[in-house]
Amino acid sequence: MNSLGRIFRISIFGESHGPGVGVVIDGCPAGIPLVVDDFLPDIARRKPGARGTTPRQEADLPIIQSGVFQQHTTGSPITIWFENQNIRSADYEKQRDVPRPGHADFVARVKYGGYEDYRGGGHFSGRLTLPLVAAGVIAKKILQSGDSPVDIQARILEIGGETDLDKGLEKAIAAKDSIGGIVECTATGLPIGLGEPFFDSVESLLAHAVFSIPAVKGIEFGAGFRAARMFGSEHNDALIDTLGKTATNHAGGVVGGITNGNPLIFRVVVKPTSSTPKTQHTLNLRTGEIEPFQVKGRHDLCIALRVPVVLEAVTAIVLADLMLIAQQRPTRYPGV
Amino acid sequence: MNSLGRIFRISIFGESHGPGVGVVIDGCPAGIPLVVDDFLPDIARRKPGARGTTPRQEADLPIIQSGVFQQHTTGSPITIWFENQNIRSADYEKQRDVPRPGHADFVARVKYGGYEDYRGGGHFSGRLTLPLVAAGVIAKKILQSGDSPVDIQARILEIGGETDLDKGLEKAIAAKDSIGGIVECTATGLPIGLGEPFFDSVESLLAHAVFSIPAVKGIEFGAGFRAARMFGSEHNDALIDTLGKTATNHAGGVVGGITNGNPLIFRVVVKPTSSTPKTQHTLNLRTGEIEPFQVKGRHDLCIALRVPVVLEAVTAIVLADLMLIAQQRPTRYPGV
Amino acid sequence: MNSLGRIFRISIFGESHGPGVGVVIDGCPAGIPLVVDDFLPDIARRKPGARGTTPRQEADLPIIQSGVFQQHTTGSPITIWFENQNIRSADYEKQRDVPRPGHADFVARVKYGGYEDYRGGGHFSGRLTLPLVAAGVIAKKILQSGDSPVDIQARILEIGGETDLDKGLEKAIAAKDSIGGIVECTATGLPIGLGEPFFDSVESLLAHAVFSIPAVKGIEFGAGFRAARMFGSEHNDALIDTLGKTATNHAGGVVGGITNGNPLIFRVVVKPTSSTPKTQHTLNLRTGEIEPFQVKGRHDLCIALRVPVVLEAVTAIVLADLMLIAQQRPTRYPGV
Amino acid sequence: MNSLGRIFRISIFGESHGPGVGVVIDGCPAGIPLVVDDFLPDIARRKPGARGTTPRQEADLPIIQSGVFQQHTTGSPITIWFENQNIRSADYEKQRDVPRPGHADFVARVKYGGYEDYRGGGHFSGRLTLPLVAAGVIAKKILQSGDSPVDIQARILEIGGETDLDKGLEKAIAAKDSIGGIVECTATGLPIGLGEPFFDSVESLLAHAVFSIPAVKGIEFGAGFRAARMFGSEHNDALIDTLGKTATNHAGGVVGGITNGNPLIFRVVVKPTSSTPKTQHTLNLRTGEIEPFQVKGRHDLCIALRVPVVLEAVTAIVLADLMLIAQQRPTRYPGV
How far is residue B238 from each of residues A279, B247, B290, D129, measured CA to CA in Å? Predict the structure, then answer.
């Protein structure tokens, strides 16, 4: 489904080379100040243009189609719409019979019986992360409006195996190839008790949302995969005060699937951009022959560079939903 | 929520030291042969008793309370109930004010205002994986009933950093500490096209389900975190036939969030058992003092050893749901 | 699906002549006092035994299988189980090929490919209203725990066309036939603002729940079908104070799908019991012949008599869910 | 929530006097031919302009924003957008403190803390039925694409108590008041077996959807409220052939909540338009005084006249969803 969330619920739509992309947000509380300018900083962070990102330029101006009146949310569904403007579809139509390696071209063709919009990935395009970022802006507002403001920050840990990002990019440029990376996200200020057992643990919901970001292939919380080589006495975080603070944070702020009041920390791996400048091979579905393949269109050398703001957005969307759900439950510590 | 799935939908309930644990399965097709004996092999695989697992012994006999008639599913909700028998609650009641490190004791107490069933982890207990395994048995039957039977196999890759599992256990025994591990799951025979963009990718749904297994702290598909250090030309899997077969399988059988007809492969990290034999420290919530803590009760030295059958179960549950959803869509490749 | 509700979510299971019937309740807040005795008064109201109801007698003793600890709800799923005891399945097995008129026998057989549990209506049986009543008891507790306790009362308006119920029953007994009736439900003490546009209006959610009660064939709110013959100036309820009180209540307490602070009032029609003592005709599916049919088993002459407590239950379930959802929104009137 | 459906799922958004109204449709199968012209006939049927309807004129031209490519559905979300053009908001802004009788003005103000878009009913406006009609057009296409095409027809039975509609309108004009009516909807060609026990009966789902249509205050299936005064032997529909045909159709084509192969028939009552030309009284929230009230703006004398196409739309939406769900189950009659 193209919807996510239980109370704060988003639905995205659109294609890379259709009229545009957008999002409907249901369940946003009324009374939150909201104007077009609020979206611009995060949209700018997602924009290409920096070194290593695609030269495709879009105005990416959000149009508020519903749910906002007199510069405040109304409680009714909020729709944000982005027109596609800078489209070169011909690039894609030529290669219809030659599925691009690493892309969804082939599986989409099979799944939808050949009716999929194949131009630029269609509905599978990374362009769909634009409305995600817009929804994230609203979710962040919800998270910052409570007693204890929640702050979410994502940053790149490494690209191409290098923590010095310039060095990573040099590697890619030298190899004339695309590269992947690792992005870490941290949320602070969260109350104890978010997450709904058994299946809606914080980890379950975040992982669900995070894997919707194209190119993400793994996620780990706290010590993550390192935990496989730790002893229990080493991994366990000792409680040191009645507010839940622990001496270490190997759990990444989540125990039993529930936030424990320490910073929520997780990392995701972003695979190298599928559209590499390097010549590859793929099957021509018409001829049945394997043939050399050269990417057309404009692409990112390292898509991980654009992931942080998207990762923050989906994290905010999940946490805002959990915050609204949690309002129904006693969250105060009842005393010892 | 305690439910998972859209068409094939399971709801679990129960506590470690209450009357029992169980599962309701809604949306299972009618006409599937089902008797109590069908559950026993997977239940036996989950049972403790092997070296490195808890000595707590339960009969774990499934009682079918609804949805089965004349040894076939009826199309109505199937309820499987397991009585708890071998309960030593006193072990837990004593330590009410001393939250066990690594466990949900503290967060559950805050979240539920002190009303949680704290005995043995209550609803957070690993015992809840028993009804999951039962639901998995039914899901596997659905997956095996189609034209192309789907086979799911999970296995331990390493414990305590050792691929030789005996060696890993020796390490734990020598250190008098618990250890973690990595478990890999593979599903073969899947059709092309499972997964529902944008948010219900195969990766999203599997990760969602997998993080409900207690102690899982990370998941990666195909090359996973290694992808961060690969070039695009290296990571991309080249299509080599019209059935979707690729030369390599770095994607782990999922592209664009959709199965591509190659084996689905993913790995999870299982943290070391929180209940380690080693003395730890924690906060006494009554006295406000940090004090030494020694685990009571019966526990697994390496909980990862019992994870494979549970991992297979949640994988089967997710895939069965996606298979039933996919029946509504054209899945035949329309010809080139 | 066999589930209802978004936050306070119930799932029912079981069959008339299987091991029993039950309900799992997810999302119930922690800390609500709950013991077996709390269920008994409403269960007694649903019980047959009165004049005009079936002589089948069941102990109907609720067994709490999960979610309650030290006589309070824990926040985890609550499971209530009722064993079937007084079963005479042979009555039904004989008539397998002769679908009972007015019952689901034929459609169930087609829908489930012949695998349905056909004994006594199986999962379609009115016996499934027993766990509904149990869930209703818990919902009523939630509704009574707020600042403004909500009271729900259902009563029979007429049976067999008579407001004097004895007279209605005499009619049925004289005609040796079953009869229907009309039941009215009123909820007072509701806050203004329950109901979630556009599709989850109070009317939508209540109607959804109410039509799950077997034999209900219609529902109307406030003036209901009489509204078709009223003028607008007559039907409109004039606001008379800032708390929302209106001079009349033709809307039945719901405007724009949202509670307006006046009593919620609706009526449902209950068709005559399908199992009438009178000889009927139906098709023998084996012979293809139409043949006379005489009901076997024990049945209610007027099932409407047992509906009020069930109607209260589903009303309470829906309203409790809406109350929990509404806690996320500003519900105070902001001043004029 | 502003979404409806499980597989074929629609989400509506927009306000009467904002930029426009629209709908996102998720889960529509790929490959359905779809162009703008397909929407025009049903949109025309909903349009005002006929005698007794509002003189507000809108172009109501559907703009397809996503999900359609080369004149076919792609399997991705379909978004249909309608711009609002002929807006006279000043009419409404003046009366902010004077809630219109029969409208949601007051409850919306309380529910959303004064942040609601109050112009012309905002998100509560009947204008939201326009995207519903658009979604209905697509749902009808799904219903007509199967082996057995399903046909849905709604018609007005009476307005103002008159089956001669002109006579009903004369009555309203003479009284200078608005009037209500009764609309009947029939669906033929449905397979046996639609509807999902226990809570998703055909009646539950249809009633849920139907009560989202503004002004609907009651629904009844088949004999409906007349069933209260029938004997069981009279109300029961005798099965007369193995395809499920019954001699009578008092059940309205639904038994046990499941379609039985006979025509689905139900009726709804539509209250008189709240905006009557007659002078009414209401509370001035600012002054606290009750004062005379005269409707501003352009309105329908009898909103029931515009309901049939909307009723067909929501019926088609519900049935299309059930058809897609039913594809997962054996629906063939297994032989006797």
Answer: 12, 5, 57, 49
